[in-house]
Amino acid sequence: MENNQKNTIEIYSNRSFDEIRIAVIENSRLAEIFWERSSNASLVGNIYKGVVENVLPGISSAFINIGLEKNAYIYISDVIGDKRQGIDNILKKGQEVMVQIIKDAISTKGMKVTMDITIPGKYLVLSPYSDHISVSKNIEDEAERERLLNIVTSIVESTKKYGVIVRTEAEGVGEEELRKEYKYLIRLWESLLKKFENVRAPSLLYKDMDITLQVARDLLNKDVSIYMLDNREDYYNVLDFVSKISPEYKDKIKLYEAKTPIFKAFNIEQEIDELRKIKIEIPSGGSIIIQEAESLCAIDVNTGRYTGNKSQEETVTQTNIEAAYEIARQLRLRNIGGIIVIDFIDMKKASNRNRVMKALEDALKNDRAKIKILPITRLGLIEMTRERRRESTFSMLTQECPQCHGSGRVLSIESLRIKIQRDIIDLTRGKNGGNLRVVLHPVVMEALKPKLHQMEKTVQRNIKLVSDPQLIWEDYRIIIE
Question: What is the rounded (10 degree) CA torsion for 352, 357, 360, 361?
Fold first, then answer.
């Protein structure tokens, strides 16, 4: 199973009262979804004038007040200055600094910031505190990489010398367009410096653009066949933006005006509903189980029943390869980050383990997050890390279950039946007379019925079982009448 086919990409945007959802479809399958709610809009990319609140040299970190509910966190690697001196010699309490959010607050962790500001454009990313020029690794053609490097080096040397990252979207772009964008980014940076001098801290200096515009800036390229939006204002904003930065793509921007909701019309809503499932079937009959925790995600690959003429080793290998492609897709879809451990089905041959490893690496090529994969072990385990800049989709869509308290499981019917019997005995012990009424979930009541006569004999009372479908699974009431 190779991933050599050229991607065909469609993008659909849906805005409701409190959220924007943008779906990226690659080769007719949902590949990625961007989600922004009014209650938890991403702040990544925003630039602030902040005040240093605390410096903690023991962990080489500091906390900075940027005017939000929680102070932002900065590690020494993100501080501008001679890092060999230690963070307490670079930052002092009360010092005013310019910082940029690079990771949203996740769970109990505050947002992470950096002093190494970057300002993204369509083709270039300006790094004012650097003098390094680099080209995106996603541009694989060596001649094109050399061309872009020479052009940008010439542009930088003829104007102000700042660091620049050449983005993937710059492939095939001419010198004039690159020069125009570089000058625009410099003007934007200079305006930020002036604003920093004139406003009081803490204060917002620069707000990154709306998510619909970010998608147009970052994803719109020759492989995208359509970017369709169901909100008229969003449509005109994106069309105006694209007309200025990439006029050759403006015909790809479309307004959706049909009555059927856009995500329902293109079968996206159903796929989003599937993201709550922890078990995903794969074509071979096997499955993958995804278990997310706060900083670790465990993925287990299971085989289906063995059928066919191939050897068991070959069947297992093919199942693992299928699973590798689906896992890569799910990581993007669910925005799973942090440490990820994948337990593939055991393979005896090292060559087959290498085939699975190669399949996973191939499947992750389209993922824009930073990823590091360790070699597969003899037992089929792969450890990897994936950059996490915002909350995972699963965490955003769900909350802790009030019945199982986040464990994902409730008491078995047998355990619950025994618990109720024990409570009845404890409640009646040493008390005279009175019949009992037990109100409980209908399914639990059916499990208790065969034991009713024995319980009545044990406590020497009549017991009436009452079904209440409104009760949650583990809830019940024992009433002495």
Answer: -140
Q: Tell me the torsion sign for CA atoms 175, 181, 183, 186.
A: negative
What is the model's pTM? Answer: 0.74
CA atoms of 466 and 481, how far apart (whole Å): 14
Contacts of 476 (CB under 8 A, 6+ apart): 420, 438, 439, 440, 441, 444
The DSSP H or E segment spanning 119 is strand 119-120
Q: Is 116 within 8 Å of 101 (Cβ atoms)?
A: no
Q: Are 258 and 302 in contact (CB under 8 A)?
A: no
Query: pLDDT category, 186, cuts 50, 70, 90?
Result: very high
Closest by CA to 78, choosing from 95, 64, 58, is: 64
* DSSP β-ladder status, 224-229 and 253-255: parallel
pLDDT per residue as tens digits for the range 38-86: 766 788 899 999 999 999 999 999 999 999 888 999 999 999 988 888 8
Among residues 138, 137, 64, which one has the least CA distance to residue 102?
64
Report the pLDDT averaged over residues 137-164.
Answer: 89
Measured at the CA of 216, the angle between CA 212 and CA 218, to 5 degrees, comes to 110
Q: Nearest Cα to 324, choosing from 364, 293, 294, 351?
A: 364
Query: Is the CB of residue 374 less than 8 Å from the CB of residue 384?
Result: yes
The residue behind tokens 């597969």 is: 376
Tell me if 41 sits within 8 A of 24, measured CB to CB: no
Dist. CA 317–CA 426, nearest whole Å: 56
Q: What is the full DSSP assignment across 252-264? A: GEEE---SS-HHH
Q: Which two tokens stand for residue 36?
A: 């922004």
Answer yes or no: is pLDDT of 34 > 50. Answer: yes
Among 327, 332, 323, smallest CA distance to 302 is for 323
Category of 335 on φ-ψ map: left (φ > 0), alpha (ψ -120 to 50) or beta: left
* 360's tokens: 């996973």
